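Example record used in the benchmark description.
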Amino acid sequence: MLRYIVLVLRNRLSLILVTALTPAIWGTTYLVTTELLPPGRPLLAAVVRALPAGLLLLLITRHLPRGVWWWRSLVLGALNIGAFNALLFIGAYRLPGGVAATIGAVQPLLVAGLSSGLLGERLTPRTIIAAVAGVIGVSLLVLRADARLDAAGIAAALGGAAVMATGVVLSKRWTSPAPLLATTGWQLVAGGVLLAPVALLVEGPPPAVLTSSNLLGYAYLTIIGSAIAYALWFRGIRELSPTHVTFLGLLSPLVATTLGWLALGQSLTLAQGAGAVVVLAALVTAQLKPRTPRPPRPVRPVRSPALVR
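Model output (structure tokens):
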């Protein structure tokens, strides 16, 4: 029995660590975008991340949706990729990066609430405290004192967190019988198709000339940042609680800040260091399974002394 428990815990830890690779990869997006991609084309980057990656996975799996999975894939693709990236783009352009990241950090709390209502998961005080601590940690990590606020940008950032949270919970509720890579491809294609006309309308046609650095950056986002990262992400959602998975998203601003310090020479303050510690503490605390109450011991009947011989 003890060996079985150790094996389960080891497998769960391995699954958490593998799933954590996804937000860590997404944390490199800022560095790749600023150093390799053409400026002012975030929606184009979102389309290139989603559509070619989805088509690649469909080519590999050769598996199309069936029945209800046509419209479910469209809904999930819109929530997890299309609408999320569009709102993320609006929030990023109208708000400083620190404000957008701090607002996005409310996603674990939203997922916990939705999981309680749609999946029947228990919303514990520890989860709420960890979620609030995550927001505080991210704000210390990336928020600046002179950050300006914009109502439309705040609404877009909150909307992005809400649609992604809904997509994560529905991805758990609607578990497809198809292979994981196929369902990942369906969502990426659906999200990319929805994003493409928006990108064309807002940013115009793609650049006529792309440098080798641009192509390298787009290839990284397509293969590593989407095809591999989303497959690991949706696998984690299948096997773990959506609340536990979404807390791992707090790693993205942590990785982005660390890379800015290591690769771009950005300075780190004491407050940022404290924020990193708080983020890690919230993340680890959220992964701990809640204790299951022990069943009450059966009450032995008390026999009358007169019946005792």
